[in-house]
Each structure stands twice: as structure tokens, then as C-alpha cells.
Amino acid sequence: MFFYLHIPFCRQKCLYCKFALTPKFDELKIRTYIDALKREIEGFFISHPDTLIETIYFGGGTPSVLTSGQISEIIEVFREQKGFANVFEITLESNPEDITGEYLDALSELWVNRLSLGVQTLNGESLRVVGRADSNESIFRALDTIAKCSIENISIDLIAGLPGTVIGQTVSDLTEIFSCITPKHVSIYMLEDESYPLSWKPHLPSEEIVRSEYLSGMEWLQSKGFHRYELSNFAEPWFESRHNRSYWNHSNYRGFWLSSASFVGGERFINSPSFSGYYRGEKQSEGILSPESLRIERIMFGLRTSGVSLDEFDTVSTVEKFQREWLLKVRENRVFPTSTWIFLIDHIMGELI
């Protein structure tokens, strides 16, 4: 099974962020939270004693605000329950400001074998406007430290479309990053309309520029041997995120801590997004997904990833229509997206389903 651990602490909250987190925390709040997590993990394995651990993903928030000792304490709960014989991937998300050689060495000793670094952009003005705690100085210092560490599987997060974005920003960022380190994985997200304050609107790049930034970034990565295995995710062969793939192929996954989602035995449920609700054990369940709901999700996830069987569609006429418009393509009875379709995803899904 795949396990996600949500760390809801950040030194400051970026203005585009919509995740459940708080910039107000101290050692007592972290201690209380870790103790609750340990109880939740232990309780899960008591009720699911035959479950094997395939991946563990520390997300957030900013997991790197935790000390290596606190990370060790959490990982040890898993180790005590099942051992690590079947663990393939342990990922920790980090902000550049938290990266030190000592911290990375400690993580490596704890079996953390994948680091996801939230760069977002190297445009200093964009970093300031969106409220990032990092600066170019801290980013390049982190990259220099990562270049010397023993963790090989490094992932970089970028966002296309932040206020202040200039033409060529994404390729420029990638070029500078790759001059410092050689990541195995890169995510390029596009800023969503509902994610930013309305006051940003006059300062955002046009839709055409955002599209160009994404596509130019994709082409640059492909020229370096990366392939797109999901709408926003690119990797060298064999370095795709096994954990993230579990979400898209309906594998069983269990989320622990605040606001984390789970999919177990066909049921999807979410922990409470509030601390008080989480500590009371509150969860919101969608119930067991119906065969029709699963079919719709297979289409949605398939088009974002490796394609979907033509047999999943009630009618092929709409697929043929989008083929003629070069939004979809069909090969060996499977439907795949073209690069053009990315920017019309809501419209296409609305007609296909």
C-alpha cells in the first residue's frame, strides 16, 4: 500500500496555496501532532495487519520544517509495524531554505531516497509577490548542497503563470537549475484561476504566455531525455513517482494527518481539515465508488497519464470529433491526449463523460 503523511506546517503561507496548513506552530503543536499521527498509523496496522508498505510520502505544507529526529520517529513507527523489506520509495518534500548537508545526510540514513524541492520559479519578483520565504540566494545554496548529497532521486517543482512571469521564464529556470544539479523528475504546474488573490489579475501573464511556458518547458525536458507520464509530471526513464502513480491507477493508498485523502477497498475518504476535527478522528467519506464513478475516473486519470481504453467510452463519436480537431489521438484501441488538449481539459472531459 501507498502512504501519504500530511505535514500542515509552513513558515509562511504562499498566497496561491489552498492546502490545509498553518504558519503558526511551535514545538508543542508539532509534538501533539506527531503523537496523534503515531496513534493513527498504529491503529491502521492493527486493523489491517496484512498490509505491506510500498511507498511513504511526506507532503504538506513543508515537511522539512520537521527535524531529522522527528522524521526518524515517524518512519520508525512504520518500520516497527511491518519492516521495510517491500518499501520502494520514501519521499520528502522540502523548501530550499531548510536544506543543509547535515539534514540531507540524516535523511539518507533514514531511508529517504527521494527529495522533492519546491523551487516554483527563479524570478525574484514573482517569489516576493506570491509570498515565498525563499530567495534566489537560498535556492541556489540548496541546489549546491543537493549536488553534493547521496540522494540521487531529486524532483523539482515549478509553476508556470505566476505574476511577473516573462516570456522564456520556464526554460531559463530549467537551464539554470540543470547547470547546478541533474534532477530525475520535474513537475510543471500551471497556476489555477481560483488559487490566487483577485488583486493579482492585472499582473498575471496572458493565457497564451502560460501555454507557451508550459509547452516550451515540456519540449526542453523532452530534449533532455525526460518523458511526460502525467499532465504536469516529467521524468527520466525509471524515475517516475511510484507514489503519485498510485493515485491515478486506483491503487489502495492511505493518507494520515490533517486533510489527507485515502482510497481503501473502493472507498474514498478524507481526514478533517481542522486540527480539532482531526484530533476527534473526524472523516468525510464519499462511500464506495460505484462502477460508473470508477469508469469516469479511469477516463479522467487515463487521459492525464498513459491513455485509456476506447472501450471505456459509451460512444466513440465524440472521441472521433476530438481526433479531427487534433485534441485526442487513438492508437491500438487506446485514446491519448495531444499537447493541445491540455488547455481545454475541462471542455473535453465535459463532452466525453
Task: Give the CATH level 1 class of the largest domain.
Answer: Alpha Beta
Terminal Cα separation, in Å? 29 Å
So, the CATH homologous superfamily of the largest domain? Aldolase class I
Shape: globular
Count of discrete domains: 2
Class computed from helices, strands and strand pairing: alpha/beta
CATH topology of the largest domain: TIM Barrel
Number of E strands: 15
How confident is the prediction overall: mean pLDDT? 91
Largest beta sheet: strand ordering:
7-8-6-5-4-3-2-1-9
- The low-confidence parts are none
Number of helical runs?
12
Which series of helices and strands comes N to C?
A: EHEHEHEHHEHEHEEHEEEHEHEHEEH
The radius of gyration computed from the alpha-carbon positions, rounded to a whole number of angstroms, is 21 Å
Identify the CATH architecture of the largest domain: Alpha-Beta Barrel
Q: What share of the residues does DSSP label as strand, in percent?
A: 15-25%
Helix content estimate: 25-40%
Largest sheet: 9 strands, mixed
What does this structure look like?
With 353 residues, the chain is α/β, with parallel strands linked by helices. The protein folds into 2 domains: 2-247, Aldolase class I (TIM Barrel, Alpha-Beta Barrel); 290-353, Orthogonal Bundle (Arc Repressor Mutant, subunit A). The chain is 38% helix and 21% strand. The protein contains 12 helices and 15 strands. The protein has helices spanning 27-47, 68-82, 101-109, 124-130, 136-147, 169-180, 207-223, 242-248, 275-279, 291-304, 317-324, 345-352; strands at 2-7, 55-60, 89-94, 114-120, 153-160, 185-190, 227-230, 233-235, 253-256, 261-264, 267-271, 283-288, 308-309, 328-331, 334-337. It has a 9-stranded mixed sheet, sandwiched between helices. Strand 10 (261-264) and strand 11 (267-271) form a beta hairpin. Helix 1 (27-47) packs parallel to helix 2 and helix 6 packs parallel to helix 7 (207-223). The longest helix is centred in the first third of the chain and has 21 residues, at 27-47. The protein is globular and about 60 Å long. 33% of the residues are buried. The model has no long low-confidence stretch (mean pLDDT 91).
